[in-house]
Amino acid sequence: MENNIFSQLYCWKCLSRLYLCVFVIGSVTTGYNLDLKNPVIRKGTRNTYFGYSVAIHSEGEDDMMIVGAPRGDSNITGITEGGAIYRCPLVPYDYQGECQLLVLETQRSDPSLNRSHQWLGATVKSSGGTGKVLNGNFVLGGPGRSKGTENDAYLGYTVAQGTQGLDVVTGAPRGGRLMGKVYIFKVTDTAVKKHQQLTGQQFGSYFGHCVAIMDLNNDGLDDLIVGAPNYWNKETHQINVGQVYVYYQTAQGNLDEEHKSIITGQVTNGRFGFTVAPLGDVNDDGFNGEYAGKTTVRYQLCSLKKIRYTEVLGFKTWLYYG
């Protein structure tokens, strides 16, 4: 598939000094207190997937975006498209300069390792202004590292850590005979034990492709958001519209499967729920909100003699308030 498109980053300023950043090539839905008329735009190099991942970071009084470009070049001899990470200033808002490439190393630390096409920058995170890299234990997913208890389940495809009841959550989008699964683990000083598991509702929906943890109903307990971007709406005969599931934690420490909320995408091949993220209280109503994104939609018409691509419809974001 052709990827010769110009990546851009749009960042909308919130009145509460919260910044919401998403990678878009198109439009965005309206929000309560988001300034949609004056987006902050940061551009990257063609075909580098600039904006594949984004994190807001602060150093002193400086606010910035840390942007991943997993097909970018880090300018290290012997490494081709190893991925790159950029630092983009948020202010001034009309900044027209280039983002700064973060130099993590100047030469290959181990020439015996093949690090070309390693997708550095596929995920970026920030610890905020604390300067801490790690705080206690951390969890790293490794889908395909071993067979586990279910072959090709992709356990560890995505992971999230909570602070109020949900210790570790990980997705296995090919688990449950391709229904998709999400596992909740309890962590102690000596062991990691499975506490609960959730199963998707449709074969091949990729339930568990992404997960996010936050308190959505202000009860002091972690709640869970799960994306299933390949969900097929059989009633409207639309493929890959995507779904997002919201599970609320009970006082007993379990996620309530019976009273979950389900949000269904509306665009064929839109893959709504490809990414989900907690936003905090965006509209100042005392409840946290969530963000759900959908991927670039590119329709491809094929024949034996030629391939014709229609327009890129774009990334879209949807805000849901608690």
UniProtKB/TrEMBL annotation:
**Stored PROSITE patterns:** FG_GAP
Where are this protein's FG-GAP repeats? Answer: 33-97, 141-192, 193-256
Key word Chloroplast present in the record? no
Q: What is this protein called?
A: Integrin alpha-8
Q: Name one GO cellular component term.
A: external side of plasma membrane
Q: Which family does it belong to?
A: Belongs to the integrin alpha chain family.
Record-linked Pfam families: FG-GAP
Q: Which UniProt keywords apply?
A: Cell adhesion, Glycoprotein, Integrin, Receptor, Repeat, Signal
Organism domain of life: Eukaryota
Q: How does it sit in the membrane?
A: Single-pass type I membrane protein
Q: Kindly indicate whether the keyword Glycoprotein belongs to this entry.
A: yes
Question: What organism does the UniProt record list as the source?
Answer: Holothuria leucospilota
Its localization reads:
Membrane
Tell me one GO molecular function of this protein: integrin binding
Which GO terms of type biological process are on file? cell adhesion mediated by integrin; cell-cell adhesion; cell-matrix adhesion; integrin-mediated signaling pathway
What InterPro entries does the record tag this protein with?
Answer: FG-GAP, Int_alpha_beta-p, Integrin_alpha, Integrin_alpha_N
